[in-house]
Design a protein that fits this description.
single chain; alpha+beta; 35 strands; about 25% helix; about 30% strand; globular
């Protein structure tokens, strides 16, 4: 009886414990719209066809058949005393049919549930989590999340089962904690048990561990990013029932094979159906931009099937660098190009070099760092994965200092995907070098894009080096809900010479947070252990800094319309002067197809580039790839620009800085000496700065 009650609660398609309504079998027909074989429903009066199909003779409604008045009374439970023996027999046969369907449905549900529990492929997420017991001590256990259930084991091999949590009756909430990591809580709102009676292999007694609460569990993940991913995955597990109807509809339309793994995952909880409004909302999946002023881009009809094609490639924990992405979610430019977005306000670095105080220099560097995040594309888009050997060149003109900031990037490795870059403005006294390993992880209803690497900012005249790290991007709502993009994680900007350090934390939106909690950032500037200032705000809006010493507050960064007008003008190498593997020329056909919304053409052109890269790899064989402009330092394991020039700008001999064929260099005047005196100073006085700038533009 307990088992029967359990499945009755678990699957809402099962009949309730109340007596079933007495329905004439002749008044029942199959539910063709849902696709079930055992689903019956009564015909409404006056209904002669269902789903566009004419009804059979014996399926005509009571209003259209002889004796409909008496049968209608029987249908609504009236005139029971005057029921004929034939009507009583019909009611008895109807009850037998319903009981039979009930038993079949219960067996089917149990079979699907236990089959899914034993299937290793139906796992949304699995990892080690700490769980707090009734004695308030923590135990590290292996947790495997599957649709509708959370399995807990003592070992990763899933041999020692501890217990199974039924998620259908659980609520999920973030739990604050003073300790490291991220806590969340699964609980029953009415303080009922959340545990299943049996294990996936029929176990009735779990492995011995510390006592665990019966109506809730508190979990601790190793980091905030891991905890957020677990919460997203739990939301996915709780929503599998709603996704199933969408999947079955897509299967009928031919977009997704009903035998695929992604379809099988969703077959467990088909009892909860989507309303028509929810179904239309789910099919009109949109890509949203981060922030309150989100921009919406609706996926077209031809692209809806491509979403499911993409999902069939994905497994929880998979690295997305190995996944072929549909072209409609691509931003029409290369990742090498996108990395240059951080230098539209490079003039802030020119000002930082001139600051006399190391604190003011750090504050100015932090202001420049924040200036690189507000520039975003329309919608949630992913740039092209660069081809091995691909390069990108551009520069920004500085009208105030009559100088130029040069940028060069190259894809130095494909597996793993590593992009190296070098930025230089020798006249203004700074250069930046670094490399980025782009990693993406899929977590069921969310994914994280991690930029693993460091950038090193060098002030040439001061010999100060600032080591900078990057936040990660977290996208959630891939399968259901609103798709949003956030930045998360802790970053640092450290200068070893001055001992100054800036720390920032990009905060993901709390589970129960409001719109004001979106895109929050906080941090501090310290020297040694002394905190000099704190930072609070939103990384896509206003950020305030509070001076500890003076108690004053000022705006550190705010991308107002006036500030955006101060963006430096970017110059890209002319198309006819670009090499075969420069980004704009390499992806030209793909970009044209995406901009004209010809997704088939874009997919074909993208495939041509990817296949050419595979052919080059086959021809290269075991020979390692040698980048053109960067080399790997074996001591530091860092990629360095081959033509790095870290010498400070000398106005007596340096005329201008320029880039030619990927080599950033400085034009110097020839030194002529007579009687031991240098004539370079008098030569410099005869040439104005404007002429140097003209020569620079001619070389570009």
């Amino acid at each position: 009886m307990k088992e029967e009650n359990l499945f009755r609660r678990r699957f809402s398609l099962c009949p309730t414990a109340t007596s079933p309504p007495k329905i004439d079998p002749r008044l029942l027909t199959r539910n063709l719209s849902y696709g079930g074989d055992n689903e019956l429903y009564p015909l409404s009066p006056g209904e002669s066809e269902r789903n566009g199909l004419p009804l059979l003779k014996d399926e005509v409604s009571p209003a259209q058949s002889p004796g409909s008045a008496s049968e209608s009374k029987m249908f609504i439970g009236l005139d029971k005393d005057s029921s004929s023996p034939t009507e009583k027999l019909a009611r008895k046969e109807s009850l037998k049919v319903q009981k039979k369907n009930y038993r079949q449905e219960k067996k089917r549900a149990a079979k699907e549930l236990f089959s899914a529990l034993k299937d290793p492929s139906v796992v949304i997420m699995s990892n080690w989590l700490k769980i707090r017991g009734t004695l308030k001590s923590w135990t590290k256990l292996w947790c495997a999340l599957r649709p509708g259930v959370l399995l807990i084991y003592k070992t990763q091999s899933s041999e020692h089962w501890v217990g199974t949590i039924l998620l259908n009756a659980c609520k999920l909430i973030e739990r604050p904690s003073k300790k490291d990591g991220f806590c969340f809580k699964l609980y029953h709102p009415l303080d009922k048990s959340i545990w299943a009676m049996k294990g996936p292999k029929g176990e009735t007694v779990g492995s011995i561990t510390q006592p665990l609460p019966s109506n809730y569990l508190i979990f601790r993940a190793a980091s905030e990013s891991d905890g957020r991913c677990w919460m997203d995955a739990l939301e996915l597990a709780l929503s599998c029932s709603s996704l199933y109807k969408l999947t079955t509809k897509t299967c009928r339309d031919g977009d997704l094979s009903s035998s695929s793994e992604s379809s099988h995952i969703l077959q467990l909880l088909q009892s909860t159906a989507l309303s028509d409004h929810e179904l239309l909302h789910s099919e009109s999946m949109v890509f949203l931009q981060a922030g309150e002023a989100s921009q919406v881009e609706t996926v077209s009809e031809e692209n809806k099937g491509l979403i499911w094609t993409l999902l069939k490639q994905l497994r929880p924990g998979m690295d997305l660098s190995k996944v072929v992405l549909p072209t409609f979610i691509l931003e029409p430019r290369s990742f090498l190009d996108k990395l240059s977005d951080y230098y539209y306000h490079a003039s802030l670095l020119s000002q930082a070099v001139l600051e006399e105080s190391p604190y003011c220099r750090m504050k100015q560097v932090l202001r420049w760092y924040l200036s690189g995040f507000y520039k975003k594309p329309k919608g949630l888009k992913k740039p092209y994965n660069p081809i091995l050997g691909e390069t990108f060149r551009c520069c920004w003109l500085h009208p105030q200092t009559d100088s130029c900031t040069f940028y060069l990037a190259e894809q130095v490795s494909h597996h793993p995907p590593i992009s190296a870059f070098y930025v230089s403005n020798k006249k203004d006294g700074f250069c930046i070098s670094g490399s980025i390993l782009a990693k993406s992880k899929f977590y069921g209803n969310s994914l994280s894009a991690i930029l693993d690497g460091k950038a090193k900012l060098l002030f040439l005249t001061r010999d100060e080096e600032y080591v900078i790290t990057m936040p990660y991007a977290h996208c959630k709502g891939i399968l259901y809900g609103t798709m949003t993009l956030e930045l998360g994680g802790k970053i640092t900007i450290e200068c070893e010479k001055t001992k100054y350090c800036a720390e920032l934390e990009f905060k993901l939106k709390p589970f129960l947070g409001s719109s004001c909690n979106v895109n929050q950032v906080s941090g501090k500037i310290r020297v040694g252990e002394d905190v000099l200032a704190t930072v609070e705000g939103h990384w896509d809006g206003e950020v305030l800094i509070y001076e500890k010493k003076t108690g004053q507050q000022e705006v550190l960064w705010n991308p107002t319309p006036e500030v955006r007008k101060q963006r430096l003008r970017r110059q890209v190498v002319q198309f006819d002067q670009q090499g075969l593997k420069e980004s704009e020329r390499l992806w030209k056909q793909v970009t044209i197809a995406i901009n004209t919304k010809d997704q088939n053409k874009a997919t074909q052109e993208k495939f041509v580039l990817e296949e050419a890269q595979r052919q080059e790899a086959r021809e290269r064989g075991d020979r390692p790839w040698k980048p053109h402009f960067f080399t790997l330092n074996p001591d530091t394991n860092e990629w360095q620009y081959k033509h790095t020039d870290a010498k400070p700008w000398d106005p007596d001999c340096c005329l201008l800085q320029f880039e030619k064929d990927g080599i950033i260099q400085t034009k110097e005047r020839r030194r002529r000496q007579r009687n031991g005196f240098t004539y370079s100073q008098s030569w410099a006085r005869q040439h104005k700065v404007s002429r140097s700038f003209t020569e620079l533009m001619d070389m570009l």
